[in-house]
Structure formats: structure tokens, C-alpha cells
């Protein structure tokens, strides 16, 4: 079974602005399940984001690549095109609540219409990571709060240098 699972490539896509310990938890769990993971950092020219995309890619690589053999790159356009380019058989999506699940279901159905060969797997967060979101990190940071427990250490260091 392990040999079979190791052959399945999965895409974990998002804005990751910033990449949180919740995202890291998803990556760790997917790796434990034996998937070959590629991380796609979405680039929307209409929404430049808080952290520049190139920096997000580099920060995620620094957080993941010493431990995991994972490809991290940016992409523009449809996530489904990113998945196809990397020959991913599924998307990995984390959902924290019913609202997230509804959004992810709609996205999964749209992706299935575009590419029925690419499925979507949904993982709920571990209970201690349930409240982690990039928008929460940004809110706390901008209000002067401590986000060190919410993001990997290298990203926290980057945020300190930003201020």
C-alpha cells in the first residue's frame, strides 16, 4: 500500500499570505499519508497581497524543504491548470468550519467540471490548530499582537524584519 500511495501526487494551493502553522500541519499530515506534495502559491495580479509572492515561495521553501522533499512554486491563473502541469491527481484542502466546507465543495465541483481526473481531498485541522488562518495572523500582527505561535519560526522572523 505504501508504494502505491507514494505514487500519488497532490497539490496544496492557496495564497498562504502568510503560511501558518495550520498550513504546516496539513503538509505534515499529507506527507505522513504518503502523498507526493507540490505547493502552489497563487499569484493574483489584482490582489498583490501582504507579503510579496516571491517572498512567500521562499519562506515556505525554508519552512518545509529542510524536512520534506516538496516542490514550492508560484502560479497565476487557475489552480486546476497548476495541478495538471504537475500531474497532481488531487487537491488537498483544509477546512476549519462549515463555511470553509461549503466554499471548498463549490470549488471542488467547479474543478471537477474543468478536470474530472483531479479530485479534492478535505482535511479538518487538528483541534489545537482550528483557529489558525492567514487573515487572523494579519489582524493580530497589525494590531501589535504576538503571532509567534501561529506561524513557523522563519516566517515570524521575516515579519519582525518587516516592521
State the end-to-end CA separation: 48 Å
CATH class: Alpha Beta
The biggest beta sheet reads: 5 strands, parallel
Order of helices and strands: HEHEHEHEHEHH
Instruction: Please tell me the overall pLDDT.
Output: 91
Low-confidence parts, pLDDT < 50 over ≥5 residues?
none
Beta-strand residue percentage: 15-25%
What is the architecture at the second tier of CATH? 3-Layer(aba) Sandwich
What is the assigned CATH homologous superfamily?
HUPs
Could you tell me the CATH topology label. Answer: Rossmann fold
General form? globular
**Structural class by sheet pairing and helices:** alpha/beta
**Integer tally of domains:** 1
Biggest β-sheet: strands ordered side by side in the sheet: 3-2-1-4-5
Your description of this structure?
- It is a single chain.
- It contains seven helices and five strands, in the order H-E-H-E-H-E-H-E-H-E-H-H.
- It is globular, with a radius of gyration of 15 Å.
- The chain is of the alpha/beta class and 163 residues long.
- Helix 3 (53-64) packs antiparallel against helix 7.
- It has one domain (2-162): Rossmann fold (3-Layer(aba) Sandwich), CATH 3.40.50.
- It starts with a helix and ends with a helix.
- 44% of the residues lie in helices and 17% in strands.
- It has a five-stranded parallel sheet with strand order 3-2-1-4-5, with helices on both faces.
Amino acid at each position: 500500500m505504501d508504494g502505491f500511495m507514494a505514487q500519488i501526487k497532490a497539490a496544496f494551493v492557496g495564497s498562504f499570505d502568510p503560511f501558518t502553522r495550520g498550513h504546516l500541519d496539513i503538509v505534515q499530515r499529507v506527507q505522513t499519508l504518503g502523498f507526493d506534495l507540490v505547493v502552489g502559491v497563487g499569484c493574483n495580479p489584482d490582489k498583490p497581497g501582504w507579503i510579496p509572492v516571491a517572498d512567500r515561495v521562499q519562506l515556505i521553501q525554508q519552512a518545509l524543504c529542510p524536512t520534506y522533499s516538496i516542490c514550492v512554486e508560484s502560479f497565476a491563473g487557475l489552480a486546476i491548470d497548476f495541478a495538471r502541469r504537475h500531474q497532481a491527481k488531487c487537491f488537498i484542502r483544509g477546512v476549519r468550519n462549515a463555511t470553509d466546507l461549503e466554499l471548498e465543495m463549490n470549488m471542488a465541483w467547479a474543478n471537477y467540471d474543468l478536470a474530472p481526473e483531479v479530485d479534492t481531498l478535505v482535511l479538518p485541522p487538528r483541534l489545537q490548530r482550528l483557529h489558525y488562518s492567514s487573515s487572523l495572523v494579519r489582524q493580530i500582527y497589525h494590531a501589535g499582537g504576538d503571532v509567534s505561535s501561529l506561524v513557523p519560526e522563519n516566517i515570524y522572523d521575516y515579519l519582525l524584519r518587516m516592521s
